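Long-time lurker, finally posting.

We've been working with DUF7350 domain-containing protein (Halomarina oriensis) and I want a structural starting point before designing mutants. I don't trust myself to interpret raw outputs, so I'm hoping someone here can both generate the structure tokens and explain anything notable. Sequence follows.
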Amino acid sequence: MRRRTFLATATGLAVGSGCLGPGASESDTLPPRVEAPPSGVYRPPARFEMVLVGVADAGPFRVGLLYSHPVRFWEVVGEETYLRDADPEDSVHLLALAWDRETGVVCPEIGLTVEVERDGELVAEEAVYAMASQSMGFHYGDNVALPADDAYDVTVAVGGLRLRRTGAFEGRFGDPASHTFTVEYTRAARDALGVVRTERAGEHGALSLPESPSVPAAVAPDPKPSWTVLDETTTADARLTGYLLTGDDAARFDADRYLAVVAATPYNRLVLPSMGLRATVERGGAAVFDSILTRTLDPDLGYHYGTAVPTLDGGDELVVETLTPPQVARHEGYETAFLSMPEARLRV
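Top reply, 14 upvotes:
Generated this for you. Predicted structure of DUF7350 domain-containing protein:
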């Protein structure tokens, strides 16, 4: 399914004081990196104003497209990070997101691509990075060079989910879909976007999320009264929360008892996807259960890692081993966190 929309104007998000004005150069708008950043989540040197280009439906998905100044980010391969700095010819940082239009649950792992055309000629075609930023949480993004001030057709294509879906999501989101936005780009309008220098840059902490009701953030769920919260702990600054679901709550997972582990950032509870996790239940120092956790998208739990489990006793210990840290690129403030992750222990 391919649709088209035209937006001649856009809405600015995250405007604040201390902004650099029109005519700012690339060196002005991309503040220097924090020297010797701490291990873990830290406050980045700046917050970049984003423009919401538009929101539209594409098949069962709702997709959104935004842009900001070009930014530096780090690609993650295993536990290694690789800096992808903004090039002088880059015009914008494109950000795209897909979510369920009924619940607002964000859909990671959808293989999102962006195609940019100008007067029918291909300008850029990118399998954009899955990434995380403090201003938006999980999204897809990359820096893109636009050759001139002009109108550009930007097609956001979703490849479809390839992970387990449960509840009302079962059988949905598997097919590809796309939507084409038309963006009126000018360098002057891009330069007018605010760049807000951050107080206490380099200190442990995080920027607050901007208010943007049309573009949801992938945040950890609020537990329902029927869920049992097992425990919460951190590893490499990732917050792991264990939930035990029983009865009707567990039935949609084809289980009598279902263990769900939600991984999130420590300050804004932003979901950390694309991890490999193993859970072991220890009782009296001996392992009584062991399983790889399945990456799952659920209307209530959102994106999480889960498995059916046997009966758990008080005093049992749940050991969560990280086989693979979050395989998402990182904006500044996240590039030193969630990498080498020691095992975490949650008390039942």
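Before you design anything, note these points.
The helical segments are 26-29, 187-191, 247-251.
The first helix runs from residue 26 to 29.
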